[in-house]
Amino acid sequence: MKNTPKRKQRNKPGVVLFTAVAVMLMLSILLTATVSFVSVNRTKTNDNYKSKQAYLTASSTLESFINQIQTDTAPTNDPTAKAQQKKAIDNLKKLASANSGKGTTTNVSYNGSNGKSDNIGTTKITVAQEGTSVANIVVTCETTYLGKTEKVAAHISTQSVTKPADYTNTIELVGNGNASYDNINVIGDMAGINNTTGKVYRFINDTQIYGSYLMYGSLEVTTQPKIYLKPSLVDETKGSTVTISENLTVSNEFKVWSTMARADGYNYINIGQKISTSNHFNIGDSGFEIDLFCSEANIGGNSITQYGNFYVYKGAGAYQGNATFGADSQNIYGSLYVEGDLNVTKALNVTGSIYVTGTITGKDNITCPNIKEGVVLSKAGRDARPQIPVSSDEYIYYPEDFFMSSNTDITTISGQYNAFYDGSNTKTFNTFASDPSNVNYTLTEDIDLQGNNVLTPVTSKYTLRIDSSCTWANDLNFNTYGNGPRILIDVSDTSGDILIKLNKDLSLGSEWSPVIVVRNRSTIDSSTGDRKYNCYFVSDSGSSISLDGIDSVTGKSKHSGSTTTNYNFHTLRVYDYDTYVRMYSADTLKNAKGDPGTPQSSFVLNPTSVDVAGSYRPSNSGIIFLFGEGTTFQVTNNSFIQGSFYSPEAIINIATQGLGGLNVTDSAGGKMTVQCCAVGVIIANSFGNDNTAFYIYTKPSTTSVMQNAKGGKDDSAFGYTLDRYDHY
């Protein structure tokens, strides 16, 4: 046996005459090893030939083993697949750690061409620890063929690392306070992720959500909101859902529609406890069914009209799956399933079937071709109730960690943040205003405006240019920088990440109305497609922040010492440069000052995950607002912000009508014109809005520190790294 590892040889033509398959079941891992060898007249073989067959058999078996591991641990977002993924890698570790780390060995024997077991050869497969850590594993295949033995090995490192954060909600509330939404319009998903019981959320006036809605707590519908279950902006092949962990109370007209045909996994409303109606409740439409699940139903008032199935299943505590139908008009274009008792006091029309486990009262009020009483409900397939997750993805790290941590696996910006407090960075906006090269700045760049690979020179002008981290203080000269100054923040490989610290309690009236344009020309990261560096607007949270480690119960980072600060802007515009130069005409771009106004009519914003002809789909947002605990950020008077907020312990109030005249498309090419307050994601302890305005989803950059914020016990990536192959 050779002792010096050397590069293995592969697949010489004419060597393999037929294949046998060895199947091993080792601690519930099914590993298929494809074994290659040749059965020949033993008198005609020579030692070199035997060695080749032994080597090919061993290497083929090993490659099959490794390929199966790769398949079992392939990246996935599906919760069931993730559980299987974790199980596969855990079982591999069990194999390796057996026998005090010497591992587990399985032998496979091969038959000759006559079908008899005549000991042509065997392969011994061993999975063992490499060294003292089960994180490092060596898989060895040793094949003996007609007396000749060859051995190959694969050295792998297992991984169990926190999965990068995945942001799917346009607006996400982290706090445990109640909220009322006044005329809010959300394109994308919306959620309240704090699983504190007893919270009540209210939709006020013309609230509309174009996507999924998840809320831990109860929802009270007191006006006339609408939810449109649209294709997911994260994955256009999937639809949307409504999930409310406690009660839904409908005291005014409430409509939930869908633009996609029903499919398992979406197009449903799932109420964890009771649904009560005293007005109109309209669900789905012909050809666009939406199923409804709850644990108790009390249907009254004017009407209920549903296209889809209505399920009333037993829940926890007092919720016994009972249903009462007493509305003036009741039509279910589908089937009704009641696990408790059904009481019908007014006419109920069900076009499908009615299945009731308990008793039916008021059967004479029912029109239905098939009524079954005393049945056991299967709760399988379409009839299986979707699970309400115990909790949503938890945030482990907070802006304070990004500001102060020395761990580069958590943050890349703490150096720039601390520079504001240790005296090494005293620059403000006024510092750049003192440099003539940054004043009245003109930029001309060739840009593919139409997405047809035709470059057009685009000129834009700015009152001021910022090209490194600094503090935004109220120290600019008003005569020069009041009344809508357009300020360019220029991110590049030279600048690295740019941090704009908002000076404590910065307040700017509408006479200032700054227009911030962030241009990012740093290198594109080849693995993510996002720019390497980002622009951060950070709160003035001070340098006395203490990071107190990870809480042993919650698994979240603990911190203290953040400085409380309040920001007020009466009219603030923040644009991504690549959107800005497409949104406005050449004449508008040539003004260095003033409100850019309404976007040109030819501009169509595309927030979906697919390309739509004639529209512009922005890249993931590299403009990030990080606000620490105790921060309040308020903007009013037609403000517009293109960027993402990570402020899980801060208050964000965007009480404004936003930017008017913005055209937005969906994945089917449909178009609507909206007043828009923000494009990005907003994660806040609490959120306030006022007047009719839209908030549109755009994912934050995968290279930003936000990718390190989220994680949890069920949200890890399990896998392995193949370090090397050896042939002995």
Average per-residue pLDDT, rounded, comes to 86
Distance between the termini: 7 Å
The count of β-strands is 58
Could you tell me the radius of gyration in angstroms?
31 Å
Q: Helix segment count?
A: 8
Structural class: mainly beta
β-strand amount: 35-45%
Runs in which pLDDT lies below 50 for 5 or more consecutive residues are 1-45, 712-718
Shape: globular
Give the helix proportion (percent range): 10-25%
Tell me the major beta sheet.
19 strands, parallel
What can you see in these coordinates?
This protein has 728 residues and is mainly beta. 11% of the residues lie in helices and 42% in strands.
Helices and strands in order:
Blueprint: E1 18-26, E2 29-37, H1 47-72, H2 79-97, E3 104-110, E4 121-130, E5 133-145, E6 148-162, E7 169-173, E8 179-182, E9 184-187, E10 189-192, E11 200-204, E12 208-210, E13 213-215, E14 218-221, E15 226-229, E16 241-244, E17 248-250, E18 254-258, E19 268-271, E20 274-277, E21 280-283, E22 291-294, E23 296-299, E24 303-307, E25 310-312, E26 323-325, E27 329-333, E28 336-338, E29 342-344, E30 348-350, E31 353-356, E32 360-361, E33 366-367, E34 370-373, E35 394-395, H3 399-404, H4 414-419, H5 429-433, E36 439-447, E37 456-466, E38 470-472, H6 478-481, E39 486-491, E40 498-502, E41 507-508, E42 515-520, E43 535-539, E44 546-550, E45 557-560, E46 565-570, E47 573-576, H7 577-583, H8 586-589, E48 604-605, E49 623-626, E50 631-636, E51 640-642, E52 644-655, E53 659-665, E54 671-680, E55 682-690, E56 693-697, E57 710-711, E58 716-727
Parallel strand pairs: 7-10, 7-55, 8-11, 9-12, 9-56, 10-13, 11-14, 12-15, 13-16, 14-17, 15-18, 16-19, 17-20, 18-21, 19-22, 20-23, 21-24, 22-25, 23-26, 24-27, 25-28, 26-29, 27-30, 28-31, 29-32, 30-33, 31-34, 37-39, 38-40, 39-42, 40-43, 41-46, 42-47, 43-49, 46-50, 47-51, 48-53, 49-52, 50-52, 51-54, ...
Antiparallel strand pairs: 1-2, 3-4, 4-5, 5-6, 6-58, 35-57, 36-37, 44-45, 53-54
